[in-house]
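Pipeline run #58 for the internal structure catalog. This entry was flagged by the ingest filter as a single-chain record with no existing model, so it goes straight to prediction. Upstream metadata was stripped on purpose; only the residue string is passed forward. Reviewer on rotation: M.T. Logging verbosity set to normal.
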Amino acid sequence: MQTGDIRLIKNINERVVLNMIREHKLISAARLATITGMRPSTISSLLKDLQDKDLVINRGKGESTDKGGKKPFLWSLNSSVGYVVGLDLEIDEALGVLLDLEGNVIERLVQRNNTIATPEDLVELSRRMVFGLLEQANVSEDLILGLGIGLTGVADVKKGIILKTGMLPDTQIPFGDMLQQLFKFPIFIENNANAAAMGERWLGKAVGVENFLAALIELDIYHGGFGIGVVINGELFHGVSYAAGELNVTLPTLDAEFKTLDTRLQNARREQGDNTVTIQTLIDAARNGDQAAAAYFNRLGYNIGRIIAPAIGLFNPEMLIIEGDIAELDKLVTDPIKSAIDLEVLEITSVALNIETGMHGRFAVSIGAASIILNDIFKVPLVTSNRIDTYF
């Protein structure tokens, strides 16, 4: 049996079958033939080739149909034949995940990064995160198919260049090339809100949704960040200078907001110290019924709704997904967002809009960054004729 890298699969039909197996988790050859329109003999041949390359697994016989007949063999993706890494690089911490080919989270890792002063520091942080994840999972670097990185700022995704970031004063940082000197697998650099959007598109609330916005809200003691990932016709929209969704707004930091909260929360801040209290302090309080904390998120949600309403009116999306830690609050934050949007856009626009909270919480960006690699791996090229072309 030869073990193949999925990136070497050039036949479009093989990629189509792989995607069908990935989407359905467990599926028979007959069902694959029905969905794809390929002949059963073609499906059988493709499955054999994919099995020889160790990319799919025969899971044995399933149940017969209602009409009886032979029990069909069921097939699944060999999710452990390769892995992808996703990193979320922010101003004061880095989060990483290791995913298998089905998008299951194998490992998570969080590190503080208070010493980032140069591009080389950012490269070293990335190196520690990647190898830390591999060591935790006991996975060889040879099995990594790609690294996706989501970061605060603007990035030229084609060249892997950081154009602007709040983490460093430098601009035009060739981050992709710097990392490529350390790793032998492909590397993709993306804005954090865009990465979060792709995570929802592949592994979250927006699976099958073609047009949506993902608003990434990041709040801590001294930082208040806001960005929007824009997905149109299933693809990220970057804009001419890769700054689509990067609004020039700053949310109030928690340092200021604590002054308006009740005595109990102020005492908690003094006991824990300014540097250890995070947005999670307020989230936990709100979920436990604290009225001051709930009032804070009501104000925050209303402000977010007013900020994003023009984008809702402009794009008329099917869905708005709220990403970041505050996604844990669900309707406590989405209800005021909806109220603000309803006041700013046409009724026909607001009625069609579904507002959701993201599925991945604080790991939304890192899971999304890894999802960008999965998207690249499984992408099936458009076919404009009946001729079977190769992927490369």
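catalog note: The chain has 13 helices and 15 strands.
catalog note: Residues 207-358 form a domain with the Nucleotidyltransferase; domain 5 fold (CATH 3.30.420.40).
status: ready for reviewer M.T.
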